[in-house]
Specification:
The chain is an alpha+beta fold. It is built from seven helices and 15 strands.
């Protein structure tokens, strides 16, 4: 009889339950209050890059335990604009209510693409959940890329888009002191040109790498041409086949691959309170496609989300006009 290995034991313990056809899985059999052994972490990491969004239910963890889990994926970053804790500046507190209306989350985006090295991953924990509303939607931009026509893939191959921290620029208009701070932040975060098509560093799969919150324009196109292409690519996130919708509950943790996933948090719970604590894994260089366009190898085409017909439908009901 073969001896069981730690990796095999972890595979039995860590249960990966698929949630959507193109994105999302729930992880069961894991207690994030305890340090993860290497085999369990490897199983979770494999599920992370495969499914892009992972949901962990009933995880009554402390903030330190949430941080420790996120740090297994890499060092954490500090957001220059979002509200954070004095003693743990890497922790972003998203606490919205009637006294502090929600802002900036009701738009499809990837986190912090205004950075030259945007975050690898985001780990979000529910603290206070509204009675209704407050879900978060996620979209696989890997699936979005594969749903494009070959002609569109050829067109966007090798293009670059300018990114900017534009949602926060209005915070720096009130005084000369604020203008000086803005110039300092612009020096710290110069506008990067990121590839429109990104290559995932682990899976090698291609990703639509533009989002409406931070993108400004595409290099080499006129303004109206750039807007037309960007608006089309942004709209790919709205195709239901590429989406996962997560209903929050107390002690739910969700982490997503910020390299390949966009998210959108509707404000449909206002004026109820919704409190989340977020930590973000620091980024890495963004690598785009290079050379002449060639179709991806070894990747089955995904449906566009419209008018999909099964390849082998088998027996089907007969339409009325076909009778007689």
């Amino acid at each position: 009889m073969n001896a069981r290995t730690p990796a095999a034991d972890a595979a039995r313990t860590v249960q990966v339950v698929r949630l959507g056809g193109n994105i999302g899985a729930e992880i069961r059999g894991v207690d994030l209050r305890q340090p993860l052994d290497d085999a369990s972490f490897a199983a979770i990491h494999a599920a992370f890059v495969r499914h892009e969004v992972l949901v962990f239910r009933d995880q009554d963890v402390t903030l330190d335990q949430q941080i420790a889990f996120a740090q297994r994926f890499g060092p954490l970053s500090i957001h220059p604009f979002s509200p954070n804790l004095d003693d743990r500046r890497e922790v972003i507190v998203l606490d919205y209510s009637a006294d502090n209306p929600p802002a900036l989350t009701d738009q499809w985006h990837a986190d912090e693409t205004f950075r030259t090295q945007p975050p690898i991953a985001t780990v979000l924990r529910a603290r206070v959940v509204p009675e209704y509303g407050g879900d978060t939607l996620f979209a696989s931009m890997t699936a979005a890329y594969h749903g494009l026509s070959e002609r569109m893939k050829r067109y966007i191959h090798g293009l670059e888009a300018l990114h900017d921290f534009k949602p926060w620029r209005p915070l720096f208009t009130s005084s000369e002191k604020h203008q000086a701070k803005l110039r300092e932040l612009e020096a710290q975060h110069p506008n990067p040109w990121h590839p429109v098509v990104r290559v995932h560093p682990v899976t090698g799969r291609r990703i639509v790498n533009v989002n409406p919150q931070f993108c400004v324009r595409i290099k080499g196109l006129k303004d109206d041409e750039s807007r037309m292409i960007l608006d089309y690519l942004y709209s790919r996130a709205t195709i239901p086949e590429y989406q996962l919708r997560v209903r929050w509950a107390p002690h739910t943790i969700v982490m997503w691959d910020n390299r390949s996933v966009h998210h959108y948090a509707p404000h449909d719970y206002f004026p109820q309170r919704r409190t989340m604590e977020r930590v973000t894994v620091a980024g890495e260089p963004v690598v785009g496609v290079s050379g002449e366009y060639v179709p991806e190898e070894g990747v089955a085409p995904l449906p566009s989300g419209h008018g999909v017909v099964p390849a082998n439908p088998g027996r089907r009901p007969i339409r009325e006009f076909e009778r007689g």
